[in-house]
Amino acid sequence: MTWRVLVVDDDPQIRDALDRALTRAGYQVLCAEGGDSAYAILSSTPVDVVLLDLIMPQLPGDALFLAIVRRWPALKSHVILMTGHVDAPKREWPEELKLCPILTKP
Questions:
Q1: Element of type H or E holding 40
Q2: Cα dist. 85→15, 59, 72, 79, 104 in Å?
């Protein structure tokens, strides 16, 4: 079984790098540049894991995370947050968001 990974990041270089690396590792990769495209992909295609950037211009990753897990609760423990900011996680986040692993980006 090939795992399907959704990469959500507004930076095209990050999306491309993750797409190449994950594809080489044997994953099927879908990419979205923000909340609207991520939601559209999730509405039409089941995924196993979501790599989600926290800082995006139109819809922040923490808000998108909450929207995703409310609509697709099975993904709750299948989201990995990504950030280049050292101040994450935030104290005011709900517990379900605080439980997500965080991948630090360069």
A1: helix 35-44
A2: 17, 17, 27, 18, 8
**Digitized pLDDT (tens) for each residue of the chain, 106 residues in all:** 799 999 999 999 999 999 999 999 999 999 999 999 999 999 999 999 999 999 888 888 889 999 999 999 999 999 999 988 766 657 777 788 778 888 888 7
Q: Provide the Cα torsion 2, 69, 41, 58; round to 10°.
A: -130
Cα dihedral 102, 68, 42, 104, rounded to 10, equals -10
Which tokens hold the place of 82? 């990504």
The model's pTM is 0.91
Contact indicator for 50, 6 with CB cutoff of 8 Å: yes
